[in-house]
Amino acid sequence: MRWQGRAGSGNIEDRRGRGMALPVGGGIGGIVLLLLFSALTGTNPIDVINTSEPESGSAGTSGVSDDDPRAQFVSVVLKDTEDTWTEIFQQRNADYREPVLVLFTDATQSSCGLGQAAMGPFYCPADQKVYLDLSFFQDLETRFGAPGDFAQAYVVALEVGHHIQTITGLSERVQGARQGVSERQANQLSVRQELQADCYAGVWGHYAARRGLLDPGDAEEGLRAAAAIGDDRLQRQSQGRVVPESFTHGSSEQRVEWLRRGLDNGRLEACNTFEGSTF
User: Fold this and answer.
1) Whole-angstrom Cα distance, residue 188 to residue 222?
2) Per-residue pLDDT reduced to its tens digit, 171-200
């Protein structure tokens, strides 16, 4: 990707090196949570205590260090997603509300609960923030066999895709539809939602290509990453068998298909994974 020298986002909240703040108010609940986290991770409780909590409601800062290329890369990708979605929303006479991306190490608090690096990158609709431990990019290359900067950019754009679903009301509708149905039906709705986020990541990639950010082979890096994190592949690696009814994100084939649709088409209308659904 041709990202060097491009503007970064002002919506980066860098919590790295700050430890993990106790929940607001501290107290017994915070201590219990801290001890539980320490027991699960094998860390010293003193090492993760940080009595100065992250600023509440912060819009982030624009100052990632010049000698921190991975953070700079994420900032540039986030800015380009902002440019893309602002343009798309303007075409629909709407304003795009930008998410904040939180960089953290090992664990951090979110409005959706405790976030840990082992969970991978995630989006919290309650605070409309994307959470990312940069060590995941190393896992993406070594554990999942999906190297490349566009593979990493796809991860960021995928989580931003969940933000699009939140601000357009899709996430809330899916959450409501998942209530009172069987586990299998709820999983199917989750798969549709995840595949749509894949497609939205592809829509961003389509616009990024038009702006000249992509090099030859970049799209293939993203498609390899999508295939690497399919439910079937992950289940086969972790438990040696595949249980399709338990899928929550989609198979490798499905994830590749919907990412490719977004990349090829560049239109939100191409990302209707809920067509034929009655939710």
Assistant:
1) 24
2) 999 999 999 899 999 999 999 999 999 999
Task: Please give the DSSP secondary-structure letter assigned to residue 132.
Answer: E
Q: Which residues of 41-77 are buried (b: 16+ CB within 10 A; e: fewer)?
A: eeeeeeebbeeeebeeeeebeeebeeeeeebbbbbbb
Q: Which helix (H) or strand (E) holds 89?
A: helix 69-91
Whole-angstrom distance, CA of residue 94 vs CA of residue 84: 13
Please report, as a single letter, which amino acid is at residue 197.
A
pTM: 0.83
What are the CA-CA distances from residue 114 to residues 13, 28, 161, 163, 232 (Å)? 16, 16, 21, 19, 27
How far apart CA 159 and CA 95 sit, in angstroms, is 19
Low-confidence ranges of the chain (pLDDT < 70): 19-63, 276-279
